[in-house]
Amino acid sequence: MSEKLYTVGKIVNTHGIRGELKIVPETDFPEERFAPGSKLLFVDPEKGTVLTQTVESARDHKTMYIVRFKGFTNINEVEKYKGWLLKVEEQYLSELPDDEFYHHEILGCNVVTDEGEELGTISEILSPGANDVWVVKRPKGKPLLLPYIDEVVLNVDIEAKQVTVHIMEGLLDL
Fold first, then answer.
1. Residue 27 in contact with residue 33, Cβ under 8 Å?
2. E strand or H helix at 35, and its extent?
3. For residue 7, which of 90, 67, 126, 82 has the smallest C-alpha distance?
4. How far apart are the C-alpha atoms of 83 and 99, rounded to whole Å?
5. Residues whose CB is less than 8 angstroms from the CB of residue 5 and which lie 6 or more positions away in sequence, other chains included
6. Which of these, 89, 76, 69, lies nearest to 21 by C-alpha position?
7. What's the pLDDT score for residue 93?
8. Closest-CA residue to 78 (of 37, 38, 86, 88)
9. Which of 171 and 14 is assigned the larger pLDDT?
10. Bridging pattern class, strands 50-61 and 5-15
């Protein structure tokens, strides 16, 4: 399978006795990913086994989703999938508005200032609250934390894997 796969959730447990699974979503679009008819891949993280499954029904349950997949009607049929990942093929990723990006598109991008100074590469994305924070791994020194706000992130060029930023006073303590 040459297509890239992206994790959208993890099967953490069974729910009830009728073949439903408890899933911790790892996607910004759980209502779309777990919509009835949606095709997801079950991936065994240890063996790499991949199975295509279709969502029959899903409901939001606290911080998780309770999902029933077509063809499963009892707990014994789904018990073995605990710990497996749910993935989606790249072709099923949604088109995002121009100012939104998937994490996998941002990670690894080079970061340069609007004055042309190279700062490093984005190694992590944190979501502490109001806005995401992009962690820039620098050649020397501590990582730089960039708030993902219009005043700081000026341009994101996914094709060139480059992000142009404006360093506000106090953001960069060299």
1. yes
2. none
3. 90
4. 34
5. 41, 43, 87, 88, 89, 90
6. 69
7. 62
8. 86
9. 14
10. unpaired
Residue 134 corresponds to which tokens in the numbers above?
A: 């992009």
Type of residue found at 164: T
d(CA 122, CA 24): 25
At 80, give phi and psi (nearest 5°): -70, -10
**Tokens read off for 130:** 């109001």
Count of residues in the chain = 174
pTM of the model: 0.58
Best CA proximity match to 127, nearest among 103, 94, 152: 103
Task: Specify whether the CB–CB gap between 168 and 151 falls below 8 A.
Answer: yes
Give the side-chain half-sphere CA count within 13 A for 22: 11
Q: Is the pLDDT of residue 56 over 90?
A: yes
What type of residue sits at position 96? L
Q: In angstroms, how far apart are the furthest CA atoms of the chain?
A: 61
Strand partners, 25: 9
